[in-house]
Design brief:
Blueprint: H1 2-22, E1 25-26, E2 37-41, E3 44-48, H2 50-56, H3 58-69, E4 74-75, E5 78-83, H4 87-99, H5 111-123, H6 127-140, H7 146-149, H8 169-194, H9 211-214, H10 216-230, H11 242-251, H12 266-290
Helix pairs in contact: 2-3, 4-5, 5-6, 8-11, 8-12, 11-12
Protein name: BTB domain-containing protein
Organism: Mycena venus
């Protein structure tokens, strides 16, 4: 009888220890004494304020209403709202909800945080945080307007040589088709705006008696054409970025260095500059359709 009693006691003790080991852990920072709901994510729970959640998120509003109608289990006397998100993602989401996103840096080391915020603000329909993040990303990382493109950080991100990028077959085809469209646009720009470009009506060399001097601006544009075509087979040079190649065609005329090519007069440069701006805008507006990206009207302009 004593043996049975001892075994029974040991089983109860083991069950108690297992329950303690499997009990969820309270988040040390995002758990408030006056919080009135517990969000349980895996083995971590957050004691937060239902009013704040419901104010900013329709899905949370609906979930808390369902909790009120059902008799659910409790943690520290608060109803439990189960979430399938990881504790890591939920902590960043709740931090943004309470503190805002001014402290979130949009740089490579913080990508997991930005990724979590975008996913959860989309999932829980917290539109003001999601919109603020997207605006900042568009401003600093991937602008949606050509005049903002030059304001991006100039530092690149080095990808390890042995890394591989996996994509769906459809995405790869869209990428290749888009690259082909972009290359054709650049070649069309060279033919239409550079090869054999006539000087401006107001060209300062138009009245020169010397034939060579009279075609000085034409020679300058021919030099630009030669520079771009010479680089056409480059891997990471002008031809790999048509937007850069187009604007660089204009910048070649303004650089102050010993190896600078022939210069066109101010009138010819101004007219060519207008053609460059128009071409870049045209290229930019066509890019989404070239790469098979569907966007709402007015988002990309």
């Amino acid at each position: 009888m004593d043996d049975f009693s001892t075994n029974r006691h040991n089983e109860i003790q083991r069950a108690h220890q297992a329950a303690i080991a499997n009990a969820p852990t309270r988040h040390p920072d995002l758990s408030f004494p006056d919080g009135n709901i517990a969000i349980l994510t895996g083995s971590v729970y957050f004691l937060v304020h239902k009013g704040l959640l419901c104010r900013h998120s329709v899905p949370f509003q609906q979930a808390t209403k369902a909790l009120e109608q059902a008799r659910s289990k409790q943690l520290e006397g608060r109803p439990i709202l189960h979430a399938t998100d990881s504790p890591h993602d939920m902590s960043h989401f709740l931090s943004a909800l309470y503190d805002g996103i001014l402290g979130v840096k949009l740089d490579p080391p913080n990508f997991p945080i930005v990724d979590a915020l975008l996913r959860l603000t989309t999932k829980y329909q917290v539109k003001h945080i999601r919109s603020s993040l997207l605006r900042e990303i568009q401003r600093t990382q991937w602008p949606v307007r050509t005049h903002s493109l030059g304001a991006r950080p100039q530092q690149g991100i080095r990808i390890p040589k042995m890394s591989s990028i996996n994509s769906r077959k459809e995405d790869l085809m869209n990428l290749l088709k888009g690259r082909e469209h972009a290359s054709r646009f650049l070649s069309t720009f060279i033919v239409n705006e550079l090869e054999g470009r006539a000087p401006s009506v107001a060209c300062v060399h138009g009245g020169d008696e010397d034939p060579g001097q009279r075609r000085a601006c034409q020679a300058a544009f021919e030099s630009i054409t030669f520079e771009i075509l010479r680089d056409v087979n480059g891997i990471t040079h002008r031809s790999s970025d048509p937007l850069f190649a187009i604007v660089d065609a204009e910048l070649m005329q303004t650089r102050d260095d010993a190896n600078s090519i022939l210069r066109a007069c101010e009138f010819c440069r101004v007219e060519f500059g207008a053609a460059v701006d128009q071409a870049r805008e045209g290229f930019w507006n066509k890019m989404p359709s070239w790469f098979g990206v569907d966007l709402d009207p007015g988002v990309w302009s």
